[in-house]
Amino acid sequence: MTWIAWRQQRMQVLLSIALIAVVTGVLVHFRFDAVTYMADHGISGCVDIDEGRCSASAMDAFAGRYKSYVAVLPLVLLCLPVLLGMFAGAPLFAREFEQGTHIFALTQSVGRIRWCSTKLLIAAVPVLAGTALLGLVATWSLRPLSFVAHGRMTTPGFETQGIVVTAYTLLAIAVGATAGLLWRNTVAAMALTIACYLLLLIGVAAAARPNYTDPVERRGTVAGGNAIGSQSGRSLVPDDAWRVGSAYYNAAGTAVDFDPSSCKSTDGTIETCLSRQQIATVSASFHPDGQFWRLQLTESLIFLVAATALLSLGAWALLKRLL
Question: Which residue windows are coiled coil (predicted)?
C-alpha cells in the first residue's frame, strides 16, 4: 500500500519539494547578500536609524536596495501553503474517486482508514518537513533585513516566518483532502481549499492573534520637539513591535478622544495638534518582538487543532459513505 501510494503521488510530492527548495535557496542567497552589503557599508547589526553609523542616509540606501525583494517575498510565502494544499491535498482523494481507482484499492484487503492514512502520510509528511525548514530559514534570512521589513510581528512578516508556515500548510492540505473526501471532485476541492484557507487565515489574524498574550503598555507625555508618545525622545513603541492600541489623556488623567481630522497645517507638528486638543499623555499597547515565538506557537496549535478536526470529519465521511 505504501509503495502504491508513493507511485501515485510522487510527482506532486517531488514538485512540491522542488518549489520549497527554490524559495529556500532564494532566502539563503539574499541573507548572505544583505549581510555582505551591511558589512561593506559599515552598518552591520543596524536595525534602527541613529546618529552614529546607522545614519538615515545609510539605512535609506540599504532599504532602497532590498525593498523590492522584501515586498515580493512575503507574497510568495503567503501563497505557498495554499498552493501546496491545492496541488498536494485536493487531488489526493478526489482524483481517486473521479477515476474510480479507489474501488480497486479498497477491495484488496485494505481498510478504508489504512488507505486514507497511508496516502495522507505519503503526501503530507515530506511537504510539511520542507515547509518546517523553510519557515526557520525565512526567520534566519530576514533578520538582517528587519529595518526594511519593519520587523516580524506584523502582517505579512508574522505569517511568513517561523513554525506557522508549517501549520498553515498542514491546514491547507487538510482542507483539500477533506473536501476531496466529501465532494469527490478535484476542482471543487481546490476552490474550497483557497476559500477556507483565506477565511481561517484572515479570521484568526484579526480576531484571535491580538489576544494570545497580554500586550505591553507604555505611557509618555506629549512634548514639543519629541516623537509622538515619547519618553526621553524615544518612541514608546519599538519599530519591530506590533502596535495594537492607543489611548489619550488630559492633564487630569482623564481619557479623551483624539481627532486627527482637526489638525491644521499651521500646527507644524502632531504634538502641537495634540496639545491644542488638551491631550497631555499618550498610552500605547503593543506586542514586542520578544513575544514572537509565543504567538507563533499559539497560532500553530490553533491551526493544528483545526486541521485535526477537518481530517477527522473526512475520515468519518469515508467510513459512512458508500464507495
Answer: none
